[in-house]
Amino acid sequence: GFGPFGEHAVNASWIAVQELEKLGLRDDVDLHVYEVPVEYQTVQRLIPALWKKHSPQLVVHVGVSGMATTVTLEKCGHNVGYKGLDNCRFCPGSQCCVEGGPECIDSIIDMDTVCRRVSALGLDVTVTISKDAGRYLCDFTYYTSLYQSRGRSAFVHVPPLGKPYTAEQLGRALQAIIEEMLD
């Protein structure tokens, strides 16, 4: 999940991830949670360091989207088009994640299948698919992780708390989504 930024004094993604941590995942899964600062340079250091430290099977990033009204599974990350200033008032001069990297990297996770299966569980949360994580820190983090992992990453956007879901609903949705991704 991510820390506060802009109008998101409380970032719903971090609250949702903390709910997931309380719920946990199945017994054979080691869950590690981190609050990622909304800073390009920190992301460029932190994401590769976390992949190196944990050698995970899968990394799932969770971010908030002020425009979202559903829990949204992002299919891909984008390399270029980063113009928004982060919490340090910084933006990469190149406006890209990885100079010379491919324009777009798809997750190896079949998001359509995950969406269909989680939707069939009858949770009180709507799950949808997207191909554009927004060209800000969410997309930047996702691309960085996809590049690092050769596609073994996922990104889930959640709406702001109460618009329309509670922290508990978001935590349960994340639990179902991640367990389905692992399957």
From TrEMBL:
Q: Which residues form the signal peptide?
A: none
Quaternary structure note: Monomer.
User: What role does this protein play?
Assistant: Removes 5-oxoproline from various penultimate amino acid residues except L-proline.
Keywords (A to Z) from UniProt: Cytoplasm, Hydrolase, Protease, Thiol protease
Provenance organism: Pterocles gutturalis (yellow-throated sandgrouse)
Q: Where is it mostly found?
A: cytoplasm
- EC numbers on record: 3.4.19.3
Q: Where in the cell is it found?
A: Cytoplasm
The record's top EC class is hydrolase
GO BP annotation list = proteolysis
| Organism superkingdom | Eukaryota
Which is an annotated GO molecular function term of this record? pyroglutamyl-peptidase activity
Q: Which family does it belong to?
A: Belongs to the peptidase C15 family.
Which residues participate directly in catalysis?
A: 74, 138
Per the record, its GO cellular-component terms are:
cytosol
Q: Does the keyword Protease apply?
A: yes
CDD domains, per database record = Peptidase_C15 (cd00501)
What's this protein's name? Answer: Pyroglutamyl-peptidase I
Looking up Pfam families in the UniProt record yields:
Peptidase_C15
Q: Which reaction does it catalyse?
A: Release of an N-terminal pyroglutamyl group from a polypeptide, the second amino acid generally not being Pro
